[in-house]
Write a structure and sequence with these properties.
The chain contains 15 helices and 17 strands. The protein is an alpha/beta fold and 385 residues long.
Amino acid sequence: MSAPNPQNIPLSLYVHIPWCVRKCPYCDFNSHEGQVEEAAYVSALLADLEQDQHYAQGRPIHSIFFGGGTPSLFSGEAIKQILQGVAQRIPLSANCEITLEANPGTVEQARFDAYREAGVNRLSIGVQSFNQQHLQRLGRIHSNDEAIKAATAARQAGFDNFNLDLMFALPGQTEVEAVEDVLQAAALNPSHISHYHLTMEPNTVFAKYPPEQLPDEEASWEIQDICERELESAGYENYEVSAWAKPNQQCAHNLNYWRFGDYLGIGAGAHGKITQADGSIIRTAKKKAPAHFLRDSGSAAVYASKAAISPQALPFEYMLNRLRLSEPFDAVELKTYSGINSEDLSAAFAEAIEQQLLVKQGNYWRRTGKGRDYLNNLLELFLAS
């Protein structure tokens, strides 16, 4: 194993906006109902970035992602102030992708126009379903009509590059209803569709009070299979386990994340992953509570954790990310991003190929369809590496 050089690793920025109108029962993200403190939070975010900017080590930012919570609760002016403040501290690449998550229940045409004017060039709209009954069961604050209007408004504001989030295997959802969601999403012609299986995450309302009529494993597989065939028929390619994109329209921020690239994380509960000058790789997390973040931003006290990935854990950490992607990788990429020599993983690679979870094509390894379906089994092979 050798030390990776951060100058060879792209840098992204994640900005967390922690507030939402109402916490969804399935959501385990760091989101909080309550009064939005926009002006104070903008200042705190920039103080947080100022403390972390040395991690950039002269690199420009290639992508920015505003996640939440509900970032679309913030005004266009606030987003503009954040982006201007970022650019004053760390340069942005010429084609920097800037994504903002939006809830259909919190946006209107003027707000999308303002985001576009602020510098946002990609939206991710949290639709989840176009079925009114399922939206209510998921605790969403928007309607089917509002979801469609949000996608239409995004395009009218000049966003040709936008994502629609969909969930499947919902309580009481039939195969026909799941396909209808996919067909409606595709009809709106987004560049990208995220297609997630609803899961019962710990410390959520659904975990404590599981909804009735959840599809069983076999039914969920059948729903997923037919929905994915519809996505393929509509011209979308599955480049990551839950992500589908039109050709050459993959989310650059997601790609950098799953390729084991570097990213700064600013905001309440934001996570970061950084390759330091000495080649060590650290993961960072900020305090989750908005009040604590606002109090401590700009000081070392804002960190909830900051720890290096051990050499023993690094192979699994790398593969946990990289093997979510369908694109192949070679020994050069492996070493560039992680410092791992492929020879040190030869036994795990051989076993993965033997089990038909990976295939070797020339100098490249590629995850197979079986490897995607049994990703946990594939990852386990790298636990002891």
